[in-house]
Amino acid sequence: MVKLSVIVPFYNVQTYAPDTLRSLQANARDDFEFLLVDDCSTDGTPEILARAEREVPGARLIRHEQNGGLATARNTGLDAASGEYLTFLDGDDWLAPGHFARLLAAMEELGCDFVRTDHVQCTARARTVHRVPVGRRGEVLRPRDAILPADRSTGVDYPYAWAGMYHRRLADRGLLHFTHGLRTAEDRPWIWRLHREAESFAAVSQLGIFYRRGVASSLTQIGDSRQLDFIRAFDQVLEETAKDPDSDRLLPKAVRTYCAVISHHLGSIERFEPAVARKLRSMSAAALKRMPQDVLKDALDSMDVERASRLRRVRRRPAALTAEAAA
User: Fold this and answer.
1) pTM over 0.90
2) Which strands form 209-213's sheet, in the order they lie side by side?
């Protein structure tokens, strides 16, 4: 009986994969399985993973015939997983020894649908602790209650799939799969759905995940059109939240977060290729026009002057492109 399935997508991370795999080996247990999903890597990653399948206890290698992106790779792992509990790790991050065993013990003691945990962000030699924005620790809570308030960082603003552990019943209910083909912000519709529809969760104070920030091959560092999938991701958040019985209460948070992310990308537009920057402006204008305008007005009125002005300027632009244009 597999107690825990760990889903680890890899794509062109030959520099970092050995650290990731060594940390999995330091977390191995007889009832753990590690699903290594190679998303059609073109560097030395496939050879590293083939060796790991032989050497890392519980490792199983799954290969994609074509690159599908992180969301699709995670779904492949979910479909192959057999554990009672499930979690994720990215192929360029790593773990403290015994992290999964400790997190699993905490989750079994709490008996909830999922747990969220803190992590250490690693940028070059700098290390920064990032906490789950939930004040009550080690206590079973209602996930829906951790969405609000709209003007503060909450559970849905900490979307990292690898910063937690999840009971299989969530997968059986269709709550753990990601939107196929989303190239970035794939965790935003996912975390919103989890907090709207799961029944119980807890935040635990455990530091055992090391998130490598600033990797050159990461989409967050690449200014091409795949970055624009954040618009498709947040359109999905708004569409699904609008159907929720509590939509009047939840939509202001969703709209404000969407606006903040648009403003963030517009504020660093120089990192995008010129054609992508033009598309970003047009698609942002279209997105702002699609939002419930009364909710948008309240969101802009509540934001700081710089961000609100930036969004109001782009809203006045012609909006010829739709979200599908970024696909």
Assistant:
1) yes
2) 94-95, 209-213, 119-123, 126-130
Distance (Å, whole) CA 63 – CA 107? 31
CB of 180 within 8 A of CB of 76?
A: no
In degrees rounded to 5, what are phi and psi of residue 235? -60, -40
Which residue type, as a one-letter code, is found at position 282? S
Nearest in space to 108 (alpha carbons), one of 134, 84, 141: 84
> Are 144 and 244 in contact, with CB atoms under 8 Å apart?
no
Location of structure tokens 């004040």 = 135
CB atoms within 10 A of CB 103: 23
pLDDT in tens, 252-303: 999 999 999 999 999 999 999 999 999 999 999 999 999 999 999 999 999 9
Evaluated on CA atoms 293, 254, 69, 225, the torsion sign reads: positive
pLDDT in tens, 131-165: 999 999 999 999 999 999 999 999 999 999 999 99
Backbone phi, then psi, for 34, in 5-degree steps? -115, 110
